[in-house]
Specification:
two-stranded antiparallel ribbon, 5 helices
Amino acid sequence: MRIGELSRITGASTRSIRHYEKKNILASVRQGNDYREFDASAVERIRIIQLYLGLGLTAEQIENILRGENSGPEEYEFCEEMLELYRRKAEQIQEQILALDVVRQRLDRQIESMLDRKRAREREDERAGAQQTSPA
């Protein structure tokens, strides 16, 4: 399939697909007319690439992972090295989760404080309105 069709199927832009190819994480065959031709496995490959990019991995790290996943038993040690990469990434994600939780707690406190001030202002407005309508 050509790059446009691959883009439509996967949702990846043609620019991204070219970038993946340039970074050696996606392969195509050049036809006589210089068009890129991708086989059906490229669809799943792009989905995997997007997953790893979403996890914050670099193109180089993805290339190493994909090479390890495609290797045979004689190269299994290489994939074992990915275990440390996965662990570091999991630790980074956990740190980000903790940092985001702190930010969320601060936002929650700020929201509650603003709501308290709003409710107090509304009570004051109600009292002022009640005083203006009561007979003197």
